[in-house]
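Reply to dn_fold:

You asked what the input looked like. This is it:
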Amino acid sequence: MGAVVYSGLQAEHNATAAPGVKPVGIMIVTRLKAQADEVVSDINAYVGRHVAVADHTDSRATPEQLHESDIVVITHAAYTRAKGTVSGVNADRWQRGGGAEDDYSPSLTKPWRTSWNILN
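and this is what came back:
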C-alpha cells in the first residue's frame, strides 16, 4: 500500500507543479505480471485517474502511454534485461535460479525505451 500512496502523491504533485518544472517519474518493479497489473489498478483507483501503466507481454504499453504516465510498472525480468542493455553492464548478478520464466516479460530493450528519462 505504501508504494500506491507514494506513487499517487507524486502523480498529484506532478499535475500541480509549476510550469517548467519537470515531472518526476516512478518505476515499480514486481515479480509477476499479475502483480504489475494489480499495482497499476490500485494506483489509478487511489488517484482517481489514469496515471500508471503496466508494460509486459500481456499488456504492452505504447510509447505514448509510457511517455505520458507518471508511473510505469514492469516485471523484475524486464528490469534486469533493460538494465543490462541500457547500462552496458552484464545484469547476471541480479538473476535468481528457478521461477516461472514464462510469467516474466521478455525484453524492455527497444530503442525508444532506452532513451526514456526514468532509465537515465
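Helices lie at 2-16, 33-47, 63-68, 76-87, 111-114.
Hope that clears it up.
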